[in-house]
Amino acid sequence: MAYQLINGKQIAKEIRLELKHEVEQLKAEGLQPGLAVILVGNNPASETYVRGKIRASEEIGIHSQLIRMNDTITQEDLLSKVRELNEDPNIHGILVQLPLPDHINPDKVIEVISPSKDVDGFTPINMGKLVIGQRGLLPCTPYGIMQMLDRTGISLEGKHAVVVGRSNIVGKPMAILLQQANATVTLCHSRTVDLPHYTRQADLIIAAVGKLNLITKEHVKPGAVVIDVGMNRNDAGKLAGDVNFEEVAPLTSAITPVPGGVGPMTIAMLMKNTVSAAKAIWQR
Ligand SMILES: Nc1nc2c(c(=O)[nH]1)N[C@@H](CN(C=O)c1ccc(C(=O)N[C@@H](CCC(=O)O)C(=O)O)cc1)CN2
Ligand SMILES: [Mg+2]
């Protein structure tokens, strides 16, 4: 079957270009959105993602500040830094790159980020708003997937979506956004018995577990749409998703690649959230 390859890299580029124009206008009106990125330690993958965030900010015209902290920093010192940024009038978005070192409780850190500056959409306030359908800042990866589906013209109305993975960052918020778009949602996870039983009924599969080749052709109904959120290394050391792309793609109507699918959308939506946060704070 001929399938559509959903080009997240290209869609993300379009979104960044739209934001660049919007920021030019905002700057002319006297507002330059500002983003602070906190990186604790030197995890190589985090270094890459943080670099991508700073580069995207620069390209769009968002003022950015990278705050590097040694991995021996105390939780209290990290909390103090976040509190300081909460009060900084030039900063409209704050994010703490995850994962954090083991001695720091990420929940405690996320909790102190001002919800109005929480451009990751991870604070209990923004998560709560999402659940009850109030406007807030949305987590970037699920928000990016919604944009990708929308901009590809994939309708969710009445579709059966199966989300595999129940993380706070992707699976849970994804399930909520999909049901708000009138999909019927099944949320599967590592303890689901007979995963293919569920995924084979799906018009849309979102694979967000972090397990190489978890989704094989046995999991997929012909014509389904498959979104791969996984980021794993294969035997050759190459980046690969949760979906066995070679065998699954020909069965689908549309599928995202890894790399070049969901990943770039995450950073584009972070930029969008930063611009939205700046406008909301400015209008207060
Ligand atoms: N505070 C946060 N921490 C983490 C988040 C997050 O949204 N907020 N998500 C991930 C990491 N992440 C952003 O932080 C992220 C991961 C991957 C990509 C990406 O563009 N991937 C590329 C491939 C990049 C590569 O070659 O390594 C792709 O898929 O094409 C962007 C952002 C965990 N932590
Ligand atoms: Mg990807």
Descriptors for this entry?
284 residues, alpha/beta, Rossmann fold, 2 domains, six-stranded parallel sheet, binds the ligand Nc1nc2c(c(=O)[nH]1)N[C@@H](CN(C=O)c1ccc(C(=O)N[C@@H](CCC(=O)O)C(=O)O)cc1)CN2, binds magnesium ion, amino-acid biosynthesis, THF_DH/CycHdrlase_NAD-bd_dom, EC 1.5.1.5, hydrolase
Structure characterization notes:
There is one protein chain. The chain is α/β, with parallel strands linked by helices and 284 residues long. The protein has 2 domains: 30-114, Leucine Dehydrogenase, chain A, domain 1 (Rossmann fold); 140-262, NAD(P)-binding Rossmann-like Domain (Rossmann fold). The chain is 42% helix and 15% strand. The chain has helices spanning 8-28, 44-60, 75-86, 106-112, 124-132, 140-151, 171-180, 195-199, 245-248, 262-282, and strands at residues 4-5, 34-40, 63-69, 93-96, 160-164, 184-188, 204-207, 225-228, 232-233, 239-240, 254-255. The strands form 3 sheets. A 6-stranded parallel β-sheet has the order 1-11-8-7-5-6. Strands 3-2-4 form a 3-stranded parallel β-sheet, with helices on both faces. The mean pLDDT is 98. Bound molecules: the ligand Nc1nc2c(c(=O)[nH]1)N[C@@H](CN(C=O)c1ccc(C(=O)N[C@@H](CCC(=O)O)C(=O)O)cc1)CN2 and magnesium ion. Residues 8, 258-263 line the site of magnesium ion (MG). It holds the Pfam family THF_DHG_CYH. Keywords: Amino-acid biosynthesis, Histidine biosynthesis, Hydrolase, Methionine biosynthesis, Multifunctional enzyme, NADP, One-carbon metabolism, Oxidoreductase, Purine biosynthesis.
Specify the biggest β-sheet: 6 strands, parallel
Quaternary state of this entry equals: single chain
Mean pLDDT: 98
Helix share of residues?
40-55%
User: Any idea of the CATH topology of the largest domain?
Assistant: Rossmann fold
From the N-terminal CA to the C-terminal CA, the straight-line distance is 52 Å
How many strands in all? 11
Q: Report the radius of gyration as a whole number of Å.
A: 19 Å
Estimate the global geometry from the Cα principal axes. globular
CATH architecture of the largest domain: 3-Layer(aba) Sandwich
The CATH class of the largest domain, by name, is: Alpha Beta
Number of helical elements: 10
